Amino acid sequence: MNFSIICNDLLETEKLAEKFANNVRDIGAFVSLYGEVGAGKTAFTKLVCKYLNVKEKVTSPSFVILNEYKSGVIPVYHFDLYRLEKEGVNTIINELEEYSEGKILTFVEWAEFSQNVLPFERIDVNINYIDDSKREFIFNATGENNIKIINGLKE
Ligand SMILES: Nc1ncnc2c1ncn2[C@@H]1O[C@H](COP(=O)(O)OP(=O)(O)OP(=O)(O)O)[C@@H](O)[C@H]1O
Ligand SMILES: [Mg+2]
């Protein structure tokens, strides 16, 4: 299942994130975020967390690899693999699968080199920088629940 949308500015990205949060809050999901530096991977994560009532400050977990936000309506796990070398990314892949299970929301910001094919159901989000304020979001979902979440973005 595939869905793409252009967000003309940050406010439109916020509307998309609000819908995403509403669709995911009762289900949970594993979300892989791809896109160049400054594309908006952290921005999207932050905005989804806002609509899940996360109280902690959502920042890029570059130095610790993983941030956990427990104050929202579902637990959110936020990985950033930017600082890992290719080998480091490969060692973490097996560990990631457990973050795709249960009613939790996991975001993984991937290093650009690591367009890994993961062996479990998830939502892939590719964010393309178009200009200063304009972004293209391309969602690819596998698995019944994830497809439901993405279908809900179309309405
Ligand atoms: N329509 C938009 N959608 C998302 N972000 C936008 C948009 N317009 C402007 N921005 C800005 O683009 C920047 C995106 O930065 P962000 O840190 O989210 O990128 P990133 O993909 O996480 O990069 P990195 O690889 O460094 O982690 C933010 O400053 C955000 O405010
Ligand atoms: Mg980031």
Give a structural overview.
It is a single chain. The chain has one domain (2-151): P-loop containing nucleotide triphosphate hydrolases (Rossmann fold), CATH 3.40.50.300. Helix 1 packs across helix 2. With 155 residues, it is α/β, with parallel strands linked by helices. 29% of the residues lie in helices and 26% in strands. A hairpin with a 5-residue loop joins strand 6 (123-129) and strand 7. The protein has 4 helices and 7 strands. Adenosine-5'-triphosphate (ATP) is lined by residues 7, 9-10, 13, 35, 37-43, 60, 82, 109, 133, 135. Magnesium ion is lined by residues 41-42, 60, 80, 109.
Detail the topology: elements first, then pairings.
Layout: E1 2-7, H1 10-24, E2 29-34, H2 41-51, E3 66-69, E4 76-80, H3 86-96, E5 105-109, E6 123-129, E7 135-141, H4 144-151
Parallel strand pairs: 2-5, 2-6, 4-5
Antiparallel strand pairs: 1-7, 3-4, 6-7
Helix pairs in contact: 1-2
The protein binds adenosine-5'-triphosphate and magnesium ion (MG).
Task: Describe this structure in a few short sentences.
The protein is α/β, with parallel strands linked by helices and 155 residues long.
Keywords:
155 residues, alpha/beta, Rossmann fold, seven-stranded mixed beta sheet, 4 helices, 26% strand, binds adenosine-5'-triphosphate, binds magnesium ion
Mean pLDDT: 92
| CATH class descriptor name | Alpha Beta
The gyration radius over C-alpha positions equals 14 Å
CATH architecture classification: 3-Layer(aba) Sandwich
Which ions, cofactors or small ligands are bound in this entry?
adenosine-5'-triphosphate, magnesium ion
